[in-house]
Design goal:
By secondary structure, the chain is of the alpha+beta class. 40% of the residues lie in helices and 36% in strands. The chain has a 4-stranded antiparallel β-sheet. The longest helix has 18 residues.
Length: 101
């Protein structure tokens, strides 16, 4: 099992709208790719990054590395571009990949 974790620091003034967009548009689009079996959205409580932002971790679960590679090659560029165009530097993301052991 592979966990694809996207950590996003969201400016507090757009956080509610961003979270709604993630739940109703972006995450459903990611799940429709068929590369992931499940997801979870977490709000990071500690460490606090700064007072004017909220940090979230969106965790996507996939069966194996090949499914993740397929997502990166076929779907991620357009989905990440859409997020960047919509939120620019108000929602900054970094990604990590983990394997269940």
């Amino acid at each position: 099992m592979i966990l694809y974790n996207v950590t996003i620091r969201v400016d507090e003034d757009i956080a509610e709208e961003w979270l709604n967009w993630m739940k109703t548009k972006h995450i459903p689009d990611v799940m429709r790719t068929g590369c992931f079996t499940d997801y979870k959205i977490m709000r990071i409580l500690q460490p606090v990054q700064d007072e004017d932002s909220i940090t979230y971790a969106v965790q996507y679960f996939c069966e194996d590395q090949q499914k993740l590679e397929s997502y990166w090659q076929n779907d991620a560029p357009a989905l990440q571009k859409e997020h960047l165009e919509k939120y620019s530097d108000k929602a900054l993301a970094f990604r990590t990949v983990m394997e269940l052991v």
